[in-house]
Prior knowledge:
By secondary structure, this protein is of the alpha+beta class. It contains 2 helices and 2 strands. β1 (about 5-10), α1 and β2 (about 40-45) form a beta-alpha-beta unit.
Amino acid sequence: MPHISxxxxxxxxxxxxxxxxxxxxxxxxxxxxGVDEGSVSIAVESVxxxxxxxxxxxxxxxxRAHLLWKxxxxxxxxxxxxxx
Length: 84
């Protein structure tokens, strides 16, 4: 029960960044859903920028827009590479 699934462009996380993300997400979800932290699971998957539109934006964002609580604010076409 609550399960968080994050898909993102590839980047390297330090152990501290990873731990901080897990801690903060878990804290927020347990408070919002009124559950123990042991019931929260988190999956993180990187997706190459060249595959983002086909694998994430079209099916999960545009195709399931009715489920979004927060919409992205990037414009189409989505950049093929991370500008960093």
